[in-house]
Amino acid sequence: MASYSSYKQIASSRIIDGSIPASAVSAGAFSNWCVKWIRGNPGNRTEGCCCYWQVPTGVKRITFELWGAGGNGHGQCNCSRCGNWHAAGGGFYNTKTIDTNTNCGYSVCAGGVYRCCSRECVGCKGCSSYVNGHNLSNFCAMGGARGCYTNSWSSTCYSQMHDCCMQPGAWNGDFGMGNHAGASYRAGGWDCHCYYNNDSIPTGAPFIGTLGVSYGVRHCWSRCGCWTVPYGHGGQGATTSYCGSSCCGQGGTGGSGLVKITYV
Amino acid sequence: MASYSSYKKINGDQLADNSLNAASFSTSPNSSYGVKWFFGTNCRCSPGCCCAWSAPSTVQNMWIQAWGAGGNGTGACSCNRCQHWQAAQGGYYNTKMIETNGNCSYTVCAAGVYPCLSRECYGCVGCSSYVNGHNLSNFCAIGGCRGNANPSWSTACASVNPCCRAPGNNGGDFGIGNHSSAWSNSRHDTYRGWCHCYHYGHSPTSAPLIGTTAYQSIRNCWIRCGCWIVPYGHGGMNAMTTYCGGCCGQGGTGGGGLVKITYF
């Protein structure tokens, strides 16, 4: 049975279309739009950042964008023979837009890197970034491929999708993609090896746009990778242009993963 | 003449200032926000993806972003003289913000590539991505230029802008392209001529704002085909040889186009 209070209520059909002025709506009623970044320390051997994030009041829709951490660079590992260098890859990208409710909680993790500066022939893969919570399931962006040193004279010298060719929709996103990991570039000496080991190019993460990170040597006993690279970027490797050199160069680590949350 | 129902209606200007807040509404006007991606499979010879898409019923504005497909790489075409190589260009970017009405229908096409793996001295141009519908006219993002190979020793060794699109071209608010790559230089070999043969490297370019990387280099190699897969919008990789007489290598195809629609 209808109550007195229900008789008092006004249905939207009783409001003249287009008649409500902006001044009737209180400030901030629909000003939920915001962007939140979750990221690790931009420095060397970043641990990433994991936290619990709660949806602000009034928010109905969220777009998550994830970038995995970049892979670590290789060490200057081989002491007996010239080698070539496959540079590390940038982290993968994944995005999803979902319905949400006020005060829903999400576990958010911007991937870090394995905290080692490799002297070995291979580095370590970058770690995944991920978000768990309401309307999400196994949603993540993988880390980038590790750098690799090899003295194989038949190794391919083109960049490629080393670990995984990610299809859109993989890892439960709406759209995702990866980048090639690096290769030796115009290396000299013999069969893609040794002196003039100039230019190996670790790659970046899609939609960040960090291009131009590279490393190489002409005549150098040992050169370690740079301590830091941009977010999501593959780390630099250690290089030498000689056989039997000190064998101590350390690769650098990749860039931290990122999570960008756009909500309204 | 006024009807009974019109007498019942309330004029919104009778509402006191700030009398409405988010809690006054059954659903937030913000809940119409969303992001929709269109893409083909991430593989060689991608056919792209074309479909009809209707804006959700409450949507009023759309931000359309389109990337054309990357050009295909060239084959290792010449059998009697050293070559040099110009890598393929990434797809162009174009964007437009429009007003729309709920349930307006749009034809959306994320470009594919010509499904050919070229053995010829040139690849194929990447295809255009486009969107047609209400408040749009000839809106598209063109594909990247093809890769090329030739035996000319005087071709410029600089990257160039092969098709300068001014912002506002192709029905957009703003558009931009990337350079196509430089013709590959090399360390000269006085027995073989200048700017040719061994120490080749080439780098197809990426689509603007995606920022991916792909490259290939060879020191001494009979034949190396292009990598099968490059990232979305990226120029395809060439086949290469450092010798005369190798002429069977196939270039790779470019990355497929993308369309991203952010609506509100």
Summarize the structure.
With 264 residues, chain A is mainly beta. Helices cover 2% and strands 21% of the residues of chain A. Chain B is mostly beta strands and 264 residues long.
Protein architecture, described:
- The complex is a heterodimer of chains A (264) and B (264).
- Chain A is built from one helix and eleven strands; from the N terminus they run αβββββββββββ.
- Chain A has a five-stranded antiparallel beta sheet with strand order 1-11-3-5-10, with no helix packed on it. In chain A, strands 2-6-7-8 form a four-stranded antiparallel beta sheet, with no helix packed on it.
- Chain A has one helix at residues 4-8, and strands at residues 34-39, 49-54, 61-67, 84-86, 93-99, 105-110, 129-133, 139-141, 148-150, 175-177, 258-263.
- Chain A is mainly beta and 264 residues long.
- The model of chain A has no long low-confidence stretch (mean pLDDT 85).
- The radius of gyration of chain A is 25 Å and the shape is elongated.
- With 264 residues, chain B is mainly β.
- In chain B, 2% of the residues lie in helices and 23% in strands.
- Chain B has one helix at 4-8; strands at residues 34-39, 49-54, 61-67, 84-86, 93-99, 105-110, 129-133, 139-141, 148-150, 174-176, 200-202, 216-218, 258-263.
- Chain B starts with a helix and ends with a strand.
